[in-house]
Amino acid sequence: MASTTTAIHGMAPAPTPGEIARVWVLHLTALYIPGLTLAFLWTGPHRWYWAAFFMVPLAIAHHIDCSSRLEQRQPRESMPAWPFDGLVYLLAALQIWIVAETVLLFTVQGIFSVDMVMVFLVVGGSSGFSIITAHELIHRPGKADQLLGRLLLCTVLYEHFYTEHLRGHHVRVGTPADPATARFGESYEAFFRRTAPAQFRSAWQLEKRRLGDPDMQLWDRRMLRNRILHGLAVEWGLVVAVFAAFGLAPTAAFLLQAYVAVRLLEAVNYFEHWGLLHAGRRVRLADSWDTHSAFTYYGLIGLSRHADHHAWPARPYQQLRVWDEAPILPYGYVGMVDLVIGKNAEFQRLATEELRRRRLGPFTAVDGESAGEALSSEDALAQLDSLHGETGSRPGRFSRSWSALPAWARRLLLFIGVIGTVSLGVQWETGASEMGMGARLLLNGWILAAVAAALFVRGRLEEKLGNESLTWLLGFGLLLALGLLTDAIAGPLPL
Q1: What does the DSSP assignment read for 445-475?
Q2: CA of residue 321 relative to chain centroid, distance
Q3: Residue 306 falls within a domain, yes or no?
Q4: pTM of model > 0.85
Q5: Are residues 384 and 462 in the same domain?
Q6: Structural domains in the chain (count)
Q7: Which of 9, 238, 240, 381 places its Cα 20 to 30 Å from the Cα of 322?
C-alpha cells in the first residue's frame, strides 16, 4: 500500500528541542475544552446569566475550527514520545476530575437549573472529548494504557467501545458489516438509532468468540471472563454508587454528560466514514474522511488524520500523517458535529459532492469504469434525493399535527411547555419553600425570554458583522446586562 500512496509533503528531518517544544505547546490546545469545563464547575452553582455565558467559549472554538487556518505539515521523524504521552495522561486525569466535580456541583444545585443545561452543552462536550483520549489509549500496546482507556469509557457508560472499536470497526470499516460506518444517504439520527445497539451486539458477539463459543449462554461459567460484563458492572456500579452517596440530581448530571458524550462520539463516527465503501481485504487511505483544520488536529490530539490512523492503528497521535488519497471534510470536527446534527441535509450535499469528485463511495470505479465520470453534480444530488425518498420514514400523527401548526404557535407552545416543566420541577425540588408557583412562572419566563433575546440579537449581528466569535460575545453581553439589571431591581432571586 505504501508504494502506491503519496503523502502531501515528505517526512522532515529529526526535530530540534525547540521544534519539539513548539509542537508540544500547540498540542496543549487539547486543554481548552477540559479547562473550560473545570472553570464552569469550579465557579458553580451559577446565577442563570453566568451559567449561560459559558456558551461563548464554545462558540469561539466553533468559529476557530471553521476558519480557514489549516495544518498539513507532516510530523517530524524521531519525535520523542514522552511529552506527548504526558499530555494524554493529563487529559485522562482531567476527565476523572471533571466527572467528580460534576457530581459535587449537583449536591448543591438542582436538576431544573441552567447549570444542568450547561452540563448538556459544556460537561457533555468535554466528556465526548475524553472518548478521544480513551481512543488513543486503547490503541496502545501496553495493558495499563488500555485499562486506563477502558476506565475513561466507563465514565461515559460506553466501555464496550473498547471491544467493538478494536476488533470490530478496524477490521470491517467501510463494509456493510460494520455498524459504525454510516451508509450513503443515511441521516445522523437514523445512524445513531442503528449504530448504538448494533455496536453493543457486535461487541457482545466478538467477546463470546474470544471466550471460545459464539453460542455461549449468559450463565456459562466462562462469562465470568467476559470483558463486556466487566465494563457493565463497573460503569453501572458507578451510577449506583453516585445515587447512593449523593442522590438524584448528581446522578442525573452524571447520566446526562454520558449521554451527550455518546451522541458526540457517534456523530464523529458518522462523518468519519459516511458513504465510503471498500471490498478489499486491507483498509485503504481512501476509506476515512480527513480534515485539515489546525484546531481539530491540535485540540483533538490528531484525530483529524483519520485515514492514517486506520491504515496504521498503532501510530501515536503526534506521528499521524496527511495523505492526499483521503476525502476531505469541509470543516474541523467541532464544526462538523454542528453540521451533521443541526444541518444534516447540508452535510450530505457537501459530502456527496466530495465523494463524486474523488469517485468514492457510490461513485467508485466498477469493472474499470468510474461511476463518478458519468454523473454530474446535479445527478449526484438527485441520486441522494432519490435515496432519501426510498429510505425516509413516514412522520407519525403527532409530527404531522405539530408541523401543521403555524411557526409562531409552535414557538409559543414550546415556550409555555419549557416554563411549566421547569417551574414545576423547581417547586418539587425546593418543596415550594422559596417562592410561589406564580412568581416562579414569571421568573422562569423572564429567564427564557432573556436568553431568547440574546440569541436573537446575536443572530442578527452575525448577519451584519459576519464574525461568529464577536457576535456571541455581544449577544451574551446583552444577557449579562439583563441579568445584572434584574438583580439590581428585584434583588438576587432564588433559582
Answers
A1: HHHHHHHHHHHHHHHHHHHHH--HHHHHHHH
A2: 23
A3: yes
A4: yes
A5: no
A6: 2
A7: 381
Written as tens digits, the pLDDT of the chain (495 aa) is: 343 445 554 455 677 888 889 999 999 999 999 999 999 999 989 998 999 889 999 999 999 999 878 999 999 878 889 999 999 999 999 999 999 999 999 999 999 999 999 999 999 999 999 999 999 999 999 999 999 999 999 999 999 999 999 999 999 999 999 999 999 999 999 999 999 999 999 999 999 999 998 888 888 888 899 999 999 999 999 999 999 999 999 999 999 999 999 999 999 999 999 999 886 778 889 999 999 999 999 999 999 999 999 999 999 999 999 999 999 999 999 999 999 999 999 999 999 999 999 989 888 764 444 444 445 556 666 767 666 655 545 666 777 777 777 888 888 888 888 888 888 888 888 887 777 888 888 888 888 899 889 989 998 988 888 888 899 999 989 999 999 988 888 666 655
Whether residue 314 is found in the same domain as residue 415: no
**Grid cell in block for residue 57:** 467559549
* Grid coordinates of 380: 449526484
Count of Cβ atoms closer than 10 Å to residue 205 Cβ = 16
Q: Evaluate whether residue 400 is within a structural domain.
A: no
Assess whether 379 and 418 both reside in one domain: no
Per the structure, the complete domain to which residue 457 belongs is given by 408-490
